[in-house]
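Repro:
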Amino acid sequence: MPTPYGSRGGMAFSAAELRVLRRTLAHALQSSTAPLTAPEVQDCLRLAQSVDEAVQEAGRLRTFLLADLARYRSALPGSLSGYLELLQDALAAGYEPTPDDLAALRALRANPVAAALLEHAQAVAARALRRRLPAAPPPRTRLLALAGGRDSAGRDSADRDGTKEPPRPQPSR
């Protein structure tokens, strides 16, 4: 069953590409060195409207297809071939698999297509997770204001205030 969602047919541009096209068109209209004629302006405005409609349609289509994918997943194992085909198309179009998708594929991994798709879906999910995680936190610095710390000259806190703390017990090995 070919779908307009993925590699088996459909739109010439992704939603992200359409947004870039729309911004480029707006920029071209605003920064044109030669004044545009009225018909050229109308053509640009019609194209911009068509791009907006295509972006909205792509959003509606994505919503429909994700709901369809969920219906197929809930009907497993009876809908195995349809679910695997829809999930392959969705992944090819940039879909990030949900935990439910990964659980369904794990349950179906006796099927060679499902097993291969599970490996691919896990890789996509891992990349998506790494992309969402914040960058590594900066390394911690020592707190020097606490008792037992050192000041910028390297002196212990006891050297600064004249009091000597009792030695701390060392952990036994």
